[in-house]
Amino acid sequence: MSILVTGIRLPFDEPEELALHQARRLTGLVSDETQAAVCRVSIDARRGKITRVYSVRLDAPVDEQAWVDKLQIPTVRYKSNEKPAVPCGGKRLAHRPVVIGLGPAGLFAAYTLAKHGYAPLVLERGGDLAARDRAVEAFWSGGAFDPASNIQFGEGGAGAYSDGKLTTRIGDPLCDTVLETLAAHGAPGDIVKKAKPHVGTDILKNVVRAMRHDIVQNGGEVRFHTALTGVRLRGGALCAVEAGGDMLACERAVLAVGHSARDTFAALHQNGVYFEPKAFSVGVRIEHLQSALDRALYGALAGHPLLPPAEYNLSRREGGRACYSFCMCPGGVVVAAQSEPETIVVNGMSYHARDGRNANAALAVSVEPADFADGTPFGGVALQRQIERAAYAQTGSYRAPCQRVGDFLAGRTTRRAGTVEPSYPLGVVYGEAAACLPPFAQAMLRDSLPYFGRKIRGFDAPDALLTGVETRTSSPVRITRGIDLFGLGCAGLIPCGEGAGYAGGIMSAAVDGIKAAHRIMEEFAPVLG
């Protein structure tokens, strides 16, 4: 058990030890026997001066609960350090559990099962990271597109080609488990205390490989290039999965296929798995010079060696619809992220150093099921495809449509870049970046850019660049599950992660994967001794 002291605000260039001193002084626990450690730290540049904001954990030789009750200080509270219990059931599994997908949700589900003796079989439709890297690099260099191994499909899932951002708002105790596991497999150790932790694509790939190695070392098996093509039910309960031409008997499977496995969605629907349409968002990527963003947020202190590259989080609501920044990548690049041929999809990525020339983020507009209702659960998928194919037709190639913000706001096409040059690896076609989006999305973007420019100076600068189209912000469907975590009408199948509509990023997907594993573990005994 510990005492948690939050909201300790110091100048950004003061040493961390001062935060520990202030926590001890505020609580009166100044004895040498009191252990103090920073458990969260963030940069705040919103109030005209730049500060670091700390949360400090104190472990003292006192009745900590009583001490906190006596202090009655809003920023001081009692915190249990107990780890979430690891369940272990008693029933016997007739077949090893199957995990479908090796993105964040599937990776953590498989790792948790393997670590505790359940010897999972992992099926991944794409290749391992070495094969993915070859396929992605070849495509970005002008080669053929590989629909099996790309930014969406393969070991690590879409999260392996991202900023490796680990921010989340779910506040689940298992978040600490995720951070500690990543750090134990090669992620930077400071992610466990940063308020906005990130790993970076370059490091995250090695972390994923290390976790997969542990899955295999602990009795699991991973089969790459093995796509799920169906499930078999008996009396409404799972009895087998079909993948890679084989029928694999199982009574429990974790379905973690990600938000872009459209063919898998269709096959499961035909097998009786229940889907419902879900809200998602579409938009464009916006790029600024990172140096300009640093000046806007840090002022004269821009470039200070103790300050990280500036980042932002913006949102606006109007008329029941939202426009917001998403997946912000300081010092990053805009990347090609399609999962189907002759489509254009963009996303953002940065390396651990975040030292690229540009900053980029999605500017996304919410899309509700009423906007795409077609009498099926897959109207959102159809809308995504329509936008992505239209973008490809617009440029006639895998080059992305690109437009300067000033031209977009003025309603004219762009002929060339200004001070901000596009980072998209396959090249761009200047013109209209958002023309393929629904009219309501274009209007919302046009109205929101000046609003965001009032929040961050220069955000709507004429030379900022828009690159289209961003359509994979989240899954457009939800695989509905009950309180037992099983898919409706399919007992034993546990949909989880982004593809199932129950997560929105690496952290929340990983936590959902652990919970899916725990659902199996609380019912069944380990397969291995």
The helix content is: 25-40%
Oligomer: single chain
* Sheet having the most strands: 7 strands, mixed
Q: Globular, elongated, flat, extended or rod-shaped: what is the shape?
A: globular
Radius of gyration: 24 Å
N- to C-terminal separation? 32 Å
What is the number of domains? Answer: 3
The average pLDDT value, as a whole number, equals 94
Proportion of residues in extended strands: 15-25%
Strand order of the largest sheet: 14-15-18-13-21-19-20
Return the CATH topology of the largest domain: FAD/NAD(P)-binding domain
* Total beta strands: 23
- Specify the CATH class of the largest domain: Alpha Beta
- Strand-pairing-aware structural class: alpha+beta
The CATH homologous superfamily of the largest domain corresponds to: FAD/NAD(P)-binding domain
CATH architecture label of the largest domain: 3-Layer(bba) Sandwich
What's the helix count? Answer: 13
Stretches where pLDDT is under 50 for at least 5 consecutive residues are none
Give structural notes.
This protein is α+β, with helices and mostly antiparallel strands and 529 residues long. The chain folds into three domains: 2-79, Alpha-Beta Plaits; 98-277 and 477-521, FAD/NAD(P)-binding domain (3-Layer(bba) Sandwich); 280-470, no CATH class. The chain has helices spanning 16-27, 64-71, 104-115, 129-140, 174-184, 201-217, 262-270, 290-298, 369-372, 379-395, 405-410, 439-455, 506-521, and strands at residues 2-11, 35-44, 51-59, 76-79, 98-100, 121-123, 221-223, 228-234, 237-243, 246-249, 253-255, 275-277, 280-289, 315-318, 321-329, 333-336, 346-349, 358-367, 400-404, 428-430, 465-470, 477-479, 493-495. The strands form six sheets. Strands 14-15-18-13-21-19-20 form a seven-stranded mixed beta sheet. Strands 7-6-5-11-23 form a five-stranded parallel beta sheet, covered by helices on one side. The protein has a four-stranded antiparallel beta sheet with strand order 2-3-1-4. Strand 2 and strand 3 (51-59) form a beta hairpin. Helix 3 (104-115) packs parallel to helix 6 (201-217). The longest helix is centred in the middle third of the chain and has 17 residues, at 201-217. The radius of gyration is 24 Å and the shape is globular. The mean pLDDT is 94.
